[in-house]
């Protein structure tokens, strides 16, 4: 690890003033410290923002505001989140381990880097780690890689579970910019597709701080599920995951939300399938149709064709689980 | 002026000159070496740190890169906490910070200043083992013992958090601790034993 200065700040304005190239914010450190040990990220200064930003979870009107520094465990065990936004708690609990969730912050979870093995192996080419060097995964060991939205320059997937839930519920990211101006980024526009600039994971303006996440009130508190399929039962990243939520009137679907992790460079919303489900009756046949619609869009790589059947099954199962809660 | 005096003055000037030069060489060499070294490897940054471990206060200067795991093992000689992967993937380094289980290998020691750290060395009461330590012995909660300090710290937290209502729940909330020997059944039993007594 390259030596660095560590500065603790209790003021977000001060943090923004100090932030420049080679200076990086640190929250729980669960991703950044790991990447620094591997010399994938080599800041010369760390700004500890754990006491500069909010960690409270508050209802504001009918929406909930989750402070950037709210720990993953706090989010998953908060009584109001469990009651009104249970999909979020389920998604968080499907991620990492109790120890890591105790450390990890909400903002850090959004900004964690991909787990593509080539990104982690500094002896290989990776456009995300070293722009212009090439993508080793595109024709390499790509069983964990994307099946939709990728480019020949990058097939990495975003590893977060929380973000899949946030995408499904139309969350918003509240940002404090280098120019000291506040702005709001809709969740779907926060993470980006790789295109030919895969070194950029998201559209957070340079040097900006995430201050909180807002989730609007929604009718999906009763019938929702988060299903994660992985190489082992727990403490493993998703091969595919599905956040499913239904708003029902009897067995008629008024509204539906479907999003996936492990399939793309960003949490992926299945808008066509959501549209298809609206107005239909909530039956296994309907869910099967929706799942078929979803996998029709997939373009697997050499080693991840299995994700088609896996995702199809996961969508059907998750929608089914929405009825049994 | 006498010849001897002249010689001795010259001798004096020569020797002092040579000595100054000699003294100067290592100094400049030293700094040149330091400059070259700093060019190749950046100079380490030290920072003062105060931390309480097992209710004992420590004040020391530590390299900012020091993780809590390395601080415990290398600086404080508390080697009970183990280094498995050093990358957050095994749980061997689990300790409590302010009563919550965390991974010490991904925690920068500079960020635990002022907090209370509890390690496996701090849970017994004198010669009286912690009930979880007793349970691991009775229930065969380990084989080689390498993962055990992390397992026990995690298990104590698992009980405190109340995640002991079923075997499945215990397994899920202990999934952050891997055991290469596969002592999992004994570990689950140990937790059940402590949770029900
Ligand atoms: C073994 C392992 C398994 C894991 N499994 C899962 C999993 O299954 N699912 C899952 O979702 N996650 C998983 N994770 C990832 C974990 O959830 C993330 O590492 C964590 O959420 C990151 O949060 P942090 O606070 O520790 O971030 P840090 O490591 O502190 O920071 C991450 C990045 O965010 C930046 N940053 C932090 N806060 C701010 C802010 N307020 N504004 C702007 N920038 C900021 C930092 O500069 C850094 O670039 C796993 C991690 C490990 C080590
Ligand atoms: S040594 Fe910390 S998790 Fe493995
Ligand atoms: S007892 Fe050997 S690794 Fe767990």
Automatic annotation (TrEMBL), chain A:
The keyword Acetylation belongs to this UniProt entry's keyword annotation: no
Highest rank taxon of the organism: Bacteria
InterPro entries recorded: CO_DH_flav_C (IPR005107), CO_DH_flav_C_dom_sf (IPR036683), Diverse_Substr_Oxidored (IPR051312), FAD-bd_PCMH (IPR016166), FAD-bd_PCMH-like_sf (IPR036318), FAD-bd_PCMH_sub1 (IPR016167), FAD-bd_PCMH_sub2 (IPR016169), Mopterin_DH_FAD-bd (IPR002346)
Signal peptide start and end residues: none
UniProt entry keywords in alphabetical sequence: FAD, Flavoprotein
Any one Pfam family match given in the protein's UniProt record, by short name: CO_deh_flav_C
Domain FAD-binding PCMH-type: 1-220
PANTHER family: OXIDOREDUCTASE, XANTHINE DEHYDROGENASE SUBUNIT C-RELATED
Entry protein name: FAD-binding molybdopterin dehydrogenase
UniProtKB/TrEMBL annotation, chain B:
Transmembrane segments: none
PROSITE patterns: 2FE2S_FER_1, 2FE2S_FER_2, TAT
Residue ranges constituting the 2Fe-2S ferredoxin-type domain according to the UniProt record: 47-123
Assigned keywords, A-Z: Iron, Metal-binding, Oxidoreductase
CDD domains: fer2
Superkingdom of this protein's organism: Bacteria
InterPro entries: 2Fe-2S-bd, 2Fe-2S-bd_dom_sf, 2Fe-2S_ferredoxin-like_sf, 2Fe-2S_ferredoxin-type, 2Fe2S_fd_BS, Aldehyde_Oxdr_Iron-Sulfur, Beta-grasp_dom_sf, TAT_signal
Keyword Protein transport: no
PANTHER family, per the entry: OXIDOREDUCTASE WITH IRON-SULFUR SUBUNIT, OXIDOREDUCTASE, IRON-SULPHUR BINDING SUBUNIT-RELATED-RELATED
UniProt protein name: 2Fe-2S ferredoxin
Upper lineage: Bacteria, Pseudomonadati, Bacteroidota, Sphingobacteriia, Sphingobacteriales
């Amino acid at each position: 690890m390259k030596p660095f200065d560590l500065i603790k700040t209790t003021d977000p304005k001060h943090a923004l003033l100090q932030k420049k190239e080679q200076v990086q914010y640190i929250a729980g450190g669960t991703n950044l410290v790991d990447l620094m040990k591997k010399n994938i990220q080599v800041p010369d200064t760390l700004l500890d923002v754990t006491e500069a930003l909010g960690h409270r979870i508050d209802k504001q009107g009918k929406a909930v505001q989750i402070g950037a520094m709210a720990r993953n465990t706090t989010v998953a065990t908060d009584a109001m989140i469990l009651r009104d936004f249970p999909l979020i708690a389920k998604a968080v609990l499907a991620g990492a381990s109790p120890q890591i969730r105790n450390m990890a912050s909400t903002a850090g979870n959004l900004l964690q880097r991909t787990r593509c093995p080539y990104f982690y192996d500094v002896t290989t080419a990776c456009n995300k780690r070293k722009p212009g060097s090439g993508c080793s995964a595109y024709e390499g060991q790509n069983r964990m890689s994307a099946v939709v939205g990728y480019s020949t320059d990058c097939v990495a997937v975003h590893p977060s579970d929380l973000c899949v839930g946030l995408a499904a519920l139309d969350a918003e990211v509240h940002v404090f910019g280098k120019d000291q101006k506040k702005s709001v980024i809709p969740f779907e526009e926060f993470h980006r597709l790789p295109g030919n600039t895969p070194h950029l994971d998201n559209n957070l303006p340079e040097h900006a701080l995430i201050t909180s996440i807002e989730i609007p009130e929604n009718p999906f508190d009763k019938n929702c599920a988060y299903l994660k399929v992985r190489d082992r039962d727990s403490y493993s990243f998703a091969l595919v995951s599905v956040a499913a939520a239904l708003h029902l009137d009897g067995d008629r679907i008024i509204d539906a939300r479907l999003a996936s992790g492990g399939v793309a460079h960003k949490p992926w919303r299945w808008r066509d399938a959501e549209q298809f489900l609206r107005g239909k009756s909530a039956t296994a046949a309907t869910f099967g149709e929706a799942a078929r619609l979803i996998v029709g869009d997939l373009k697997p790589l050499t080693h991840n064709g299995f994700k088609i059947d896996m995702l199809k099954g996961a969508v059907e199962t998750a929608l089914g689980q929405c009825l049994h809660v | 002026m006498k010849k001897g005096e002249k010689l001795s003055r010259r001798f004096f000037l020569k020797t002092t000159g040579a000595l100054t030069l000699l003294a100067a060489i290592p100094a400049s060499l030293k700094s040149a070496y330091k400059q070259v070294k700093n060019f190749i490897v950046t100079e380490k940054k030290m920072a003062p740190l105060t931390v309480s471990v097992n209710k004992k206060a420590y004040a020391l200067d530590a390299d900012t890169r020091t993780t809590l795991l390395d601080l415990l093992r290398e600086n404080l000689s508390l080697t009970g906490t183990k280094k498995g992967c050093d990358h957050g993937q095994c749980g061997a380094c689990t300790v409590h910070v302010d009563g919550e289980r965390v991974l010490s290998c991904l925690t920068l020691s500079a960020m635990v200043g002022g907090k209370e750290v509890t390690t496996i060395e701090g849970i017994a009461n004198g010669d009286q083992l912690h009930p979880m330590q007793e349970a691991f012995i009775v229930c065969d909660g380990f084989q080689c013992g390498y993962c055990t300090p992390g397992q026990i710290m995690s298990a104590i937290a698992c009980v405190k958090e109340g995640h002991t209502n079923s075997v499945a729940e215990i397994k899920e909330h202990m999934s952050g601790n891997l055991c290469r020997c596969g002592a999992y059944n004994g570990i689950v039993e140990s937790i059940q034993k402590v949770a029900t007594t």
